[in-house]
């Protein structure tokens, strides 16, 4: 009986790993926001960062993996939201903005005062499910709000999302900075790139005299960043309007461009966008306009109905509207994101397929490759001639993803 149970668990884990891999493929940037100690405003930074990115037009997901003290629903005013529904066997995250989704354990439990008394393995399982079993939209940014310290939650995120980048939040005083150094060492141990340090609660402007009161010393985050060879992303002042807006469950402070907090925060967001922008695709050697290379997935001499799983491609070089030569090349294998870059590297100008997912189409178009979907199951040469003579008729997108 134990052997059967073990096989079942292994099969479930394998399936979950595949689902996680597939889901992460649809998330361009993953950012883990954490801190060495509690009470430094980590969740506040996470929530404001997610909303600020969404306000810039990016597709954003905010995942609260602080399982014992989730703050995100309260900061965003979602604590009374109904439990999310599902679709296709997956749970839907809570929609905060048209282009921003949120998930937190508090949303699932439905009781904002419920205590989660969980050990490490259970917490790790929940975090993995937040990735595999939640039907996130295709995201430009996934912001992960982690609990303080370097325990199970940030470790699970680091192990599950291998390309996550870290933002470490601190306050200027030495007590907080000592724990920040542990957080930095954690990132280096798990080989997580650190985008930088955010020094929060960096002074309070007196509402009466206008002078800055250094409540928690000065420049501690800046000194630590220099000492560790890291960026100081921002020094965020204490702002009463931010405190009030979070208590009310709004993000109204971000809309007040006159606040020193908002000005500094927007500079930080601009820097993060700059640091995480996708690398520019290197330009290919230019060819004369009269020359075009068509790429067609092939199975048994005809167009393969499964673009992502075909064994070979026909690369048809054309010049002045005529076929010059055809070369068959083995497929690189079905891995997320591999085909668009491979086809680009192979010199394809046009891809003719029966069906293709929207993400793959976008990646190809970003590389300047024309995409034609819904083509008939003809031979590659016949399809090439139809394309060149503008007689290629297409039907539905028979997507296999």
How would you explain this protein's 3D organization?
- It is built from 13 helices and 18 strands.
- It is of the alpha/beta class and 401 residues long.
- Helix 12 (358-366) links the parallel strand 17 and strand 18 (370-372).
- The longest helix is centred in the first third of the chain and has 24 residues, at 2-25.
- The chain is elongated and about 80 Å long.
- Mean pLDDT is 82; it is low at 115-120.
In CATH, what is the homologous superfamily of the largest domain?
P-loop containing nucleotide triphosphate hydrolases
Give unreliable regions as ranges.
Answer: 115-120
- Reported by name, the CATH topology of the largest domain is Rossmann fold
Number of strands: 18
Q: Order of strands across the widest beta sheet? A: 5-6-2-7-1-8-9-12
